[in-house]
Amino acid sequence: MKTRTLSAAVFLALLATLPAAHAGTLRSDVLYLLPAETGQIVFVDLKEARRSPHYANLKSQLLPARFEHFVNFLNSIGMNLDQDISWLAWVFVPPGEDAGERFIGLAEGNFAPERVERFFLDQKLPLDVYRGQTLFPFGSGVGEGDLFFSFLDASTAIFGTRPGLALLLETRYGAHDHVLQNEKFLARLNEVNGRAPVWAVFDELYTRYTLAQVVPEAARFDQFETVARRFQASTLQVQVSRDMEISFQAWCESPLDAQAFSLLLQTGLFVQRYRMKEDNPELSRVLEQSQVSTQGDRLQVRLTIGEQELRKLLTRRIFLSGS
Known about the structure:
Radius of gyration: 20 Å
Shape: globular
Number of domains: 2
Largest sheet: 12 strands, antiparallel
Strand order of the largest sheet: 4-5-6-7-3-2-1-8-9-10-12-11
Order of helices and strands: HHEHHHHEEHEEEEHHEHHHEEHHEEH
Distance between the termini: 13 Å
Structural class: alpha+beta
């Protein structure tokens, strides 16, 4: 499975744009739309991000590539990301017995569904319908990876692959369990939703892939797979004032697993910092300040970036590692 998770550079790219402000919240009525087997949610409060002086330079790095197609279309009909969209969330549902990985995006904003439909009809562009919901294709609408978008109401847009949107709509109409019925995932979701402008939740599968991408040197150890198979979930939170504080937590099967992974992670970070010294000395110095600890079955990683260090990091071009 091709993963689209957050790299260490992505953590910084997301966080660097955000001031200390009100926490972003994914509404409960939106959570009811998400399928129970959701494996990853990432939330970005664009309304708060726009308050940052760095927003213009980094907003393209905040967004997954798939969302850029949606933004480009909105621009073509006179809508504007910087004025009309408040927050963005993207969701991945892991592969199942009868389906591959499914992608779902959601956005809150000031939309004009009637204008979009009129545009498609005037241009004689193809439309699709699922459960009475009009789906607007970005491309031909027949390719396996083609993206669609739609509007649940004038303030909520959805976009993604057709299997992803079909699953969301089945959930919306009660034919499929929603994520609030997944007690294990919900426990982690409640710890971060509404507590930071950028936050994320990962299930056990996406926790494993995320950590392998964030700290690849730790993933090289033979013991990594043994411990990673027993991950339960993880979360990311950010608090930003003049400095920046990053908090990442991963739940393991037992305290012994948490301690074992703590040693792997610290060793991996040491190797990663060493290899970055020449090509990316700023990020190397920042990672040197990371604090790794355990509390029972929970692994905690905390990182504080000072204002001057942050400015230096912003001089480098940092990209999202996903689509």
